[in-house]
Amino acid sequence: MSKIAHSKKIQTINNSKTDQLLLLINKILLSLVVVIVTVPLLYVLLGSFLQPNILVSHGISLNPDHWTIDGYVRIFQDGSIMRGFLNSVLYAGGFTIVSIIFSILAGYALSIDELVGKKAFMIFFLFTMFFNGGLIPTYLLIRELGLINTPWAIILPGAVTVWNIILARTYFKALPNELKEAARIDGASDFMIFIKIILPLAKPIIFVLALFAFIGQWNAYFNAMIYLEDRSLYPLQLVLREILIQNEVQPGMIADQLARAEMQRISEMIKYSSIVVASLPLLIMYPFFQKYFEKGVMVGSLK
């Protein structure tokens, strides 16, 4: 009887009016967020499959007779868009690798209490978070290094950020020192401790930094617009930017050289199809990174 009474008491507490009101408010707010995020995505996705004349004159239609995959066919047939997609994969992948390597190494070094000049290094790093040379000095530096119109002009600048270093440092400081002390007793060097013990435990923060770096570089186009002159090196976002801003497909961007009127007619369809293609890598990556993302952000942001 006591267990039944206790169960009813818990149920009464859980079903109180205050709890019900809070749950209702949470459900309403979450539903609004879902709608705000989902509706534009669905609009773009459906728009990419609609015939261009239907999309321009009537908007979104759920009639299967109005659907077509011509937008995707033309994208995959077009050399500049597919080349931009491959360039974006190269830039984002290289940027992510460089960012992870240096952020993890710097973060681990700064997490060691015995590091000589640790405070001076942190002050130097933090100073760069608030002050930088500006666009013109940065451009002159990239030019003097001979990186203009090369993939390295996109991969190297900005690959290492102080924020990522601080996240990695905080994560490493949260790891028990007893692990490193036990390894030193067994005769392991600092390098072996880092490779054999620290790195296997750092998977969450590595995946978080990788996701941050990849998304940031994948969506970037400004550096490419400044440092790249050869159109064959343009990333997908820069190609997509030209389509969105000019609201038409430029001559030469479609392989079969459509007439101008035809190009204007299909511009909306190609625009939406390009957005879907540009978003696919991020939509595919996130479900695999989600468990590491949640754990890494919480551990790296605490303490």
TrEMBL record:
Transmembrane ranges? 21-46, 89-110, 122-142, 154-172, 193-215, 269-289
**Glycosyltransferase in keyword set:** no
Tell me the superkingdom of the source: Bacteria
The UniProt entry's GO biological process terms, in alphabetical order, are:
transmembrane transport
Specify the ABC transmembrane type-1 domain's residue ranges: 85-293
Q: Does the keyword Secreted apply?
A: no
Q: Which Gene3D superfamilies match?
A: MetI-like (1.10.3720.10)
Keywords for this entry? Cell membrane, Membrane, Transmembrane, Transmembrane helix, Transport
Would you tell me the Gene Ontology cellular component terms? plasma membrane
Tell me the compartments it is located in.
Cell membrane
Q: Which InterPro entries match?
A: MetI-like (IPR000515), MetI-like_sf (IPR035906)
Provide the topology term for how it sits in the membrane. Answer: Multi-pass membrane protein
Q: Which family does it belong to?
A: Belongs to the binding-protein-dependent transport system permease family.
Q: What name does UniProt use for this protein?
A: Sugar ABC transporter permease
Q: Which organism is it from?
A: Salipaludibacillus neizhouensis
